[in-house]
Specification:
The complex is a heterodimer.
Chain A lengths: L13 H4 L9 H31 L20 H8 L3 H35 L7 H13 L2 H11 L5 H8 L14 H8 L12 E3 L2 E2 H4 L5 H28 L2 H9 L4 H12 L1 H16 L3 H5 L12 H10 L4 H55 L1
Antiparallel strand pairs in A: 1-2
Chain B lengths: L1 H23 L14 E5 L4 H17 L4 E5 L3 H10 L6 E5 H9 L18 H6 L1 E2 L2 E2 L3 E6 L1 E5 H6 L11 H11 L5 E4 L4 H10 L17 H15 L3 E2 L9 H7 L2 E6 L6 H4 L5 E4 L12 E7 L7 H11 L2 H11 L6 H10 L4 H6 L12 H12 L7 H21 L1
Parallel strand pairs in B: 1-2, 1-3, 8-9, 8-10
Antiparallel strand pairs in B: 3-12, 4-5, 6-12, 7-10, 7-11
Helix pairs in contact in B: 2-13, 8-9, 13-14, 16-17
Classes of the chains: A mainly alpha, B alpha/beta.
């Protein structure tokens, strides 16, 4: 491109840019115009429903017609109180759903993160043959519809399904997976001779559930869903880890090798710290996703057996659409929302602070050293 | 900067206004056409046979009335109805189930049209009562079903049992269930729910409500005895629930040959399509220490409150609940007509199903006051673990929850 064809470069100089008139006048206005469709769509389908749901959660709307009409009254925190402190069935259901989901999260998030990281490291190896085949294979469950995979799991874990057939062939007797409401820790406690409801733990403690119920762990049916979700999502997170791993330069690896680090030392002291931002992303996404689990629950039993797969997201749906208690349902959604936000912030605090400290500490030590050295040299002089 | 903020605010405001307008226009939407409005019916169908029968009947009516009726079989009726009402767009006519009726009526979802219908006196009084809320007869029952003991004839004969062995009481039920249980077949199966297990509690002489309907009597000795009997059968391994037999409901387990006896209603005839080789006989439920008892279930034809098409749908309901049409439904998918006269014809036409009609002489409706559904759902979830559970603890939890729901319902 020759200089003569350049269109008046003076126009682009910073001096002219903010002046009114000219070719760039009204740029902001056009910017808004072009983003307007997106803003309207997000506003109508996302922001507005959220505010509407917030209104429903503090109203006595009975599900008839629009929630915004003169017959619907404001009831304050009544719906929230009904779900959280009524002492009745609504509170117990909510407590049960939180208990179930809590155990679900406690098992799924660490396991899926560890598995995703493990898989990513394996398929990142330079010496592995058929790398792209393995990458595709591990990622495949993530692109397949959750409904299809859940359906297949329903067959695999049926009481006379493939899994139980394998267990039977090995001489064992598999449980009736989807009909078994016993908690994992209750089963283990039973092996050590601890009966149901040991004294001291059997009275309602928090959200109408006894500590014994809180400590039940995931039920056998919930364990299937845990396996299912780990199987489905670890592929997605593997991809995130893989991208991050490929950003770590060869020179870093070589440097650690020269410093005499073995493969384990290298992984835990070099690779893992460099993956910290990705780890944060994966944990956050995992945390949010697992607290919102709905599809698998809806397909596999809708809370059965004995409400041990009931989750807050499903409970909100059930309370609204089946029992027609729309206010309670919306209140449950907002409590769930608050839980997710709180936990995400907490996790951010935990991961981020340590990160900063690590970076800051050597730096401040370095500065302090320099300072004392300077002072020393001054005093010597 | 200032300028762009103004524009942003304007765009946002337009979006909000448009959205709010869309949300609040639900009730006024739709133009009122003059004549022959097409109607929609939402049904919870037991299968293709039922859907087709309802569609055929509606088409016949529509032809006479020069209109069009679309029948939709819901995959999840309660959810789709809830969605329809909250969206301000309910179907013109729908199946209203006995367990949700009181909740819908108390929330003013339903048009109390039944009291003005010409044939309001033709139905069984128990059914009329089931669809009455605050002494107003709301909607006309479309049919009814009672529970009976369905026996797989081949398995029965294979176990060396004869017609004289049909169980009359709990003891003989235990005996035959034990004889019928083999490695691949369980003697008895039914859903782990109040709508089945409740019959045992009633056979023991129990009930969930006091006679005047003001007090919950769930944790009585009779109810505990009924539940203990179920626990006994389950612990002995002669009773299993459908989910343990890889079946969605006990009828499926019967068809697959995984259960020899099940407790179900006349809808069991729908199995013929899936399992053409299945042979079964129907018996009345065995009596307990408190006598005979079974449940009667019914759906009614619900019309949404302030429906614009009420005149047409009322005429359609009149057609659908006529004796002739109800007997056609019976032929198509086995339900028992809701009118006393047609039910008598039914019993003579289908002697195999006569035990179901006979059962209606002593049948009771399961409790279904507004708000009871979620308590019963919780009770059902407890019943899944009855084999290892404590009947007394389960019933005292039910007592507490049901009483509080009843207080709420009566407080309104």
């Amino acid at each position: 491109m020759s200089t003569s064809t350049l269109p008046r470069p003076a126009k682009d100089s910073p001096r002219n840019r903010n002046r009114g008139g000219g070719i760039r006048s009204g740029e902001g206005r056009f910017g808004w115009l072009f983003t307007a469709p997106a803003i309207v769509i997000i506003g109508v389908f996302l922001v507005l429903p959220i505010f509407l749901a917030l209104w429903v959660s503090v109203s006595d709307w009975g599900g008839l017609g629009s929630p915004i009409n003169s017959q619907v009254g404001f009831v304050g925190a009544k719906n929230f109180a009904h779900v959280l402190t009524s002492g009745g069935l609504a509170e117990k259901d909510f407590g049960t759903s939180i208990r179930n989901n809590l155990w679900f999260v406690v098992f799924v998030v660490p396991l899926q993160t560890a598995l995703a990281l493990f898989l990513a490291v394996q398929v990142n190896r330079r010496v592995l043959r058929g790398r792209s085949f393995f990458r595709t294979a591990y990622y495949f469950p993530s692109v397949t519809s959750a409904v299809a995979i859940t359906g297949i799991f329903a067959f695999l874990f049926a009481s006379s399904g493939a899994v139980n057939s394998v267990i039977a062939a090995l001489g064992g007797k598999g449980p009736t997976w989807f009909a078994d409401p016993r908690g994992l820790f209750h089963i283990i406690a039973g092996l050590f001779g601890v009966g149901d409801n040991p004294p001291g733990l059997s009275t309602p403690a928090f959200l109408e559930l006894s500590w014994w119920d809180w400590l039940a762990g995931p039920s056998v049916a919930m364990c299937v869903i845990i396996i299912l979700v780990i199987f489905t999502t670890s592929g997605t997170f593997m991809l995130l880890f893989l991208a991050a791993l490929q950003n770590i330069g060869v020179e870093v690896e070589e440097a650690s090798l020269i410093d005499g680090a073995g493969p384990f030392r290298k992984f835990f002291s070099v690779t893992l710290p460099m993956l910290r931002p990705t780890l944060f992303t994966v944990l956050t996404l995992g945390l949010i996703g697992t607290w919102q689990i709905f599809d698998q629950i809806y397909i596999l039993g809708q809370g059965k057996p004995a409400k041990t797969t009931l989750t807050p997201a499903f409970l909100a749906y059930q309370t609204s659409f089946k029992d027609l208690n729309w206010g309670d349902g919306a209140a449950i959604s907002f409590v769930l929302f608050a839980i997710i936000v709180t936990l995400t912030l907490l996790q951010r605090l935990v991961l981020r602070d340590r990160d900063k400290e690590r970076l800051d500490r050597p730096m401040s030590r370095l500065l302090a050293n320099e300072k004392t050295a300077a002072e020393k040299s001054r005093s010597i002089r | 900067m200032n300028n762009s903020r103004k524009w942003g605010a304007a765009v946002l405001a337009i979006g909000m206004v448009a959205g709010l307008a869309a949300c609040s226009s639900g009730s006024s939407g739709g133009t009122a056409s003059t004549t022959n409005k097409p109607l929609t019916i939402l049904i919870g169908s037991s299968g293709a046979a039922e859907t087709k029968a309802v569609q055929d009947a509606s088409d016949a009516w529509a032809k006479d009335n020069k209109t069009k009726v679309t029948v939709t079989a819901a995959s999840d009726l309660t959810q789709q109805l809830g969605q329809g009402f909250s969206g301000g767009n309910p179907p013109d006519l729908f199946y209203m189930s006995w367990d949700q009726f009181q909740t819908y009526a108390s929330k003013k979802y339903l048009e109390p049209y039944a009291a003005n219908q010409a044939n309001k006196g033709a139905f069984y009084p128990a059914l009329t009562k089931a669809f009455t809320y605050k002494s107003k007869f709301y909607c006309e029952p479309k049919d009814f079903s009672t529970l009976g003991l369905i026996i797989n004839s081949d398995k029965w004969a294979a176990a060396g049992l004869t017609a004289s062995d049909v169980p009359k009481d709990w003891a003989s039920l235990e005996t035959v269930a034990k004889k019928l249980t083999t490695a691949d077949t369980v003697g008895l199966a039914f859903g782990a729910e109040y709508a089945r297990i409740g019959t045992f509690m009633n056979q023991a002489g129990g009930s969930l409500l006091s006679k005047d309907g003001k007090k919950v009597t769930a944790d009585t000795a009779e109810n505990i005895a009924g539940l203990t009997e179920v626990k006994k059968l389950a612990t002995a391994g002669v009773l299993k629930f459908p989910s343990a037999l890889d079946s969605g409901w006990s009828g499926e387990a019967l068809g697959k040959g995984k259960a020899a006896m099940v407790i179900e209603g006349p809808w069991i005839s729908g199995l013929k399509g899936d399992y053409p080789n299945l042979k079964y006989t129907v018996a009345e439920l065995p009596a307990g220490p408190g006598g005979k008892s079974t449940f009667t279930f019914s759906n009614c034809w619900g019309i949404p409150a302030q429906s614009k098409t009420a005149t047409e749908t009322e005429s359609l309901v009149k057609y659908l609940t006529s004796d002739a049409q109800q007997l056609k439904f019976s032929a198509a998918f086995g339900v028992i007509p809701s009118t006393e006269s047609a039910a008598k014809t039914y019993a003579t036409t289908y002697p195999d199903n006569a035990p179901f009609v006979k059962g209606n002489n002593y049948a009771v409706s399961p409790i279904a006051f507004a708000g009871a559904a979620s308590v019963i759902a919780d009770f059902n979830s407890q019943l899944e673990g009855i084999a290892s559970g404590d009947p007394k603890a389960i019933l005292s939890a039910l007592q507490k929850n049901l009483q509080s729901a009843l207080d709420t319902a009566n407080g309104k």
